Amino acid sequence: MDQRQLQSRNIEKYDLKLKSRPKDGVILQLHHTVRDSNGKNRRIRFSSGTFDDLHEKLACADNLGNIFILDFTDLKFWKLSSVGTCTALYFLPNKEDILIVANAKKYDISFLDIDNGETNLTLTGHTAPVKHISYSNSKYNNLLTASSVEAILWELRNYTKYFTLNTYLDAQIQQIMFTPAGDYLVACFQNDTVQIWKNETMKSVKQIIPSELKHLKNIAFTMNGRAMAMAGLTPMLILFSMDTWKALKSINLTKHNISGAQQIAFIPQIFDGGANKILAILSSDCTLHLLDLEILNVIHSICPDSSCIKRFVISPTGKYFLCILQLGEVNIYNSSYVMDLAQNISDLKKEKLCTSMQKLARQDVSSSKAEVEQKMRICMDSVRLRRILMQYGEYPDKFRSIIWRSLLNTPRNRNAYSSLIDKGIHPAYKDIEKQFTIHSSVTLKSLKRLLSCLAHWCPLFGVMKFLPAFVFPFVKVLQKDPLLLFECVATILLNYCQLWFEYAPFPPISILAIVENILSEHDQQLLDHFCETGITSQTYALKILETAFSEVLTCSEWLILWDHILSNDPAFVIMAVVSYNIVQRNAIKRLKTHEQLENFFRMQNPIDKKHFLKNAYVLLNDTPDDIHPKRFFNTFISLDKGNCYQQFTGYPKATICMKLAKKNRKMKLQNDGNTLKEMTILNQKIQISERSKKENIHNKEKINSEDETFHKLINKNNMKSIHDIQDNRDLCRKQNIDTVAYPTTIHIQQNKEHSGTKSNKKDKDYICKYSSRSKTKKKSNGKRNANLEKEVEELIKIYKNSDLSDS
């Protein structure tokens, strides 16, 4: 449609011609072309549009503020005088021929009469360009106008402000509107939350924070207002019930080749009772998809050849909809024609599908599995995956296992894994269910199998107590593919757990020192607080590492964090520990006791995950090289492809051998039925009984001598009592028994009593510890200890000269 000179006072109307049966559903295309003083044609782009279904009218505005009115009933169109660049248009319901226009410069709201172009009323009060206009179809008849930073409710009876909603920087308004019935006001914000207020009182009734949905952009309501759709830049669509305040279903849009949604709206259909089933989705690639929510299938896609779609508008009854193209044109569609076209295309696709299936059945052509895997690896290289991660913040749940496999470059060694499985359940993890409460038998079986394979692969993993808690979250995520689960965990232990086991089974001093140095560099005050409360890095770092962050993060937060860890160098996991402490510094500094801080690092605490991850990247880039973990870590090494896995050697073998030998000796003693403690007690009883027989012979002499002593004491000192002598008698007997049970202790005690010194608490503790190693024990079990030492020596020799993976 070419531009014609129209005078503002005497508005001239022109004939409008629509296509009767368009092939693509487009009944009219608008474009605004003007001629410059040089004689060249210049295209002016359209920026916004709105429908008035009651009077079958359409208003469109271009970037210069020219407003065109199209009347589909009389088939006429005309142009209004320019009121300046406008950002939003809206036909006022229940008011004939009144168009609401939001001005881009002064941010005011004008009420235009579309017949003569005169401004009847102007409302002022906004501080930013108005992008959203909505009207409540209720008894209140409120008008809502909103920018990204504020929303104002206007009382249309006297055109005054009724309510103002202000926002802050990180939670600006993405979209705000009344529900179709006008009962509620609903807004979605940039911080991925949806807030619902009661229109009558403007009190908040519901807040929705969809965990599955990130970068929320748009909401839409069915015509009856009973269901709401939410979508954003992530390929996820959520349908929400306004009756029960619960989510009805989540739809993964990647199944329909939709990478994300910029805008969504329902298209009402005839005889659907207001429960619309067709949802229009403008995807990230600027294609308009019509999704049938009943059959969960895209019935039609619109992508004009001339230009991509910038935004679209659907009429309230669904009879028409328009698409504003990026080049500035406007395509106006008749919904019925589009639906007929979609049905014809669907039938044609079915016929073609049947024909192609028949051809494929006759042909015996198939690509090899190796070629498919090679193509997948090319498409999923780390650079591309990292770009996706930086854009969306996480990997899609459906493809997470495949992406992790690609990032860790797992070899899929089925033969090597089968050899580990054939060795059965490792003795160290035979009764793992007694240590952990796991309700799912499937998960328990997967955990046992993984731990056993790790222990058979390397003896170290059979004695590390924290290992079950470390691998458990990976079991929950990857248990459907046991081979992938083992190889992922093994690769993580090989690369992201470097220097963890160099002092095993003692804490990793080097790792804890690195964490403390980084924390000192970036937050000295927090480190000082830890020192003042007596908290070491074993509490604020080691506990987090040993559980792989699973105790301090929710499930979704844990998955997102490990998406970033596996996409970066091994040093990132250390930075994540320090970042967690720094982000939680305000909560930590409020805790003053050791017990409170211990509990803090063993429970989930609210955390801003975006700030947490951002700070981890800042630490990764800004930490000096002399204390940076990458200085001490080796580069990433994937598992070898072949019939066996390489050795895990990052631990002291002698310490592990000693621990294994003691375990074996303890198990043998338990199998014999008598423990070392039981045998020692039995030998002590025998010696006590023999000693008591010998003492009986001298009892009479002792009694006589004690009686003589008793009489002498009475004569010399009357202060002594009979009870004291009896106590002395009991003490002598006790000493005789103790000499048999704990001879070394008695000897030490006698020396101390003779010297007249009093033993303090430390001496008592030392005596108790020392007395447990009695001479009786040494005599009865000397051979056993000698055998234990021999076994340790033999094990050390074996592990020095043989392959650990076969142990």
Distance between the termini: 83 Å
- The strands making up the biggest β-sheet line up spatially as 1-8-7-6-5
Beta-strand percentage?
A: 15-25%
Q: Briefly note the structural class of the backbone.
A: alpha+beta
Helix content: 40-55%
Low-confidence stretches: 1-8, 364-369, 710-723, 735-781, 799-807
Number of strands: 31
Q: What about the largest sheet?
A: 5 strands, antiparallel
Shape: elongated
Rg of Cα set: 40 Å
* Overall pLDDT: 79
Number of helices: 23
What does this structure look like?
- It is found in: Cell projection, Cilium; Cytoplasm, Cytoskeleton, Microtubule organizing center, Centrosome.
- One of its GO terms (cellular component) is ciliary basal body.
- Pfam families: RabGAP-TBC.
- InterPro entries: Rab-GAP-TBC_dom (IPR000195), Rab-GAP_TBC_sf (IPR035969), TBC1_cilium_biogenesis (IPR051570), WD40/YVTN_repeat-like_dom_sf (IPR015943), WD40_repeat_dom_sf (IPR036322).
- This protein has 807 residues and is of the alpha+beta class.
- 40% of the residues lie in helices and 21% in strands.
- A five-stranded antiparallel β-sheet has the order 1-8-7-6-5, with no helix packed on it. A four-stranded antiparallel β-sheet has the order 2-31-30-29.
- Strand 29 and strand 30 form a beta hairpin.
- It is elongated and about 135 Å long.
Features:
coiled coil; WD repeat; single chain; elongated; Rab-GAP-TBC_dom; TBC1 domain family member 31; four-stranded antiparallel beta sheet; 807 residues; cytoskeleton; 21% strand; alpha+beta; five-stranded antiparallel beta sheet; 31 strands
